[in-house]
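Progress note, sequence design subtask.
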């Protein structure tokens, strides 16, 4: 594992944030994971250590790599100090535009003139987020996929105002993190969320109308189309609440009935059946 002088800050220690911090630290970068809730932060560090242990058990990593990765990681409850010396900041907070704008407004003033400001949003307008920053040319979409330490895809989302240096340096960081990258123009849902959600919502409608069970729908896509995971199991993994918010946003912005959330989805979220994170969704976890 090569050590790098650039520092990375990841804001938000949820499932995505801790995964991004994991691969950033494993790629040799000094990485600060920022989480205001100390208990959540400690839980994130424990989850990263547990995932490294699973990698050791499967022969994918070593004890030395685990020690180095954890040695590259630190926790903070605020991003102000760490952001000042960072070369890359990745925001991975919940999909709320107001929250993201508040963070980027502060980051634009705190960070160095060359620091990349990445947002891990899976659907929100990166351009709108960028307009809240003092230097929108340094803002770019860095859409990682769950689980980050296993799924190698990084969808780079480029709004009109992002400069070439920001894109080039984002790709450099992606290569260091062993990512397979695609580059897309900033558009609602980008490429992956838009296509993946359309399939997932239609699968929910099929369950809702009794076409087939969740298991058989997923099995059909896995065996017939070679998807590594069916659309309903994937919805459980992403979180029904997360996908509901994305669906509402895309339905509003694109005006397409394909993205109108099914009533079954709304009912399950209201009942707390959010998927893997709650223990119950279309599957019992």
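Output:
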């Amino acid at each position: 594992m090569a050590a790098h002088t650039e520092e990375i800050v990841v804001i938000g220690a949820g499932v995505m944030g801790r995964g991004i911090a994991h691969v950033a630290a494993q790629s040799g970068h000094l990485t600060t994971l920022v989480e205001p809730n100390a208990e959540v932060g400690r839980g994130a560090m424990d989850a990263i250590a547990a995932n490294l242990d699973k990698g050791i058990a499967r022969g994918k990593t070593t004890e030395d790599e685990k020690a180095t990765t954890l040695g590259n990681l630190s926790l903070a409850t605020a991003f102000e100090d760490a952001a000042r010396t960072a070369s890359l900041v990745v925001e991975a907070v919940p999909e709320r535009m107001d929250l993201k704008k508040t963070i980027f407004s502060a980051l634009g003033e705190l960070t160095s003139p060359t620091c990349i400001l990445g947002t891990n949003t899976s659907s929100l307008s990166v351009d709108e987020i960028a307009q809240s920053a003092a230097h929108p040319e340094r803002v770019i979409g860095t859409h990682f996929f769950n689980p980050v330490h296993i799924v190698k895809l990084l969808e780079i989302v480029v709004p009109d105002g992002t400069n070439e240096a920001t894109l080039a340096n984002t790709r450099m960081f992606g290569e260091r993190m062993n990512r397979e990258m695609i580059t897309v123009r900033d558009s609602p849902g980008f490429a992956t969320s838009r296509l993946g959600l359309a399939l997932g919502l239609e699968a929910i409608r099929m369950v809702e109308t009794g076409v087939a069970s969740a298991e058989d729908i997923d099995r059909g896509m896995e065996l017939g189309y070679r998807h590594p995971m069916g659309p309903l199991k994937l919805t459980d993994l992403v979180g029904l609440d997360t996908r509901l918010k994305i669906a509402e946003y895309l339905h509003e912005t694109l005006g397409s009935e394909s993205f109108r959330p099914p009533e079954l989805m709304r009912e399950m979220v209201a009942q707390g059946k959010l998927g893997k994170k709650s223990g119950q969704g279309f599957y019992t976890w």
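The first strand starts at residue 7 and ends at 11. Work on this subtask will continue into the next period as scheduled.
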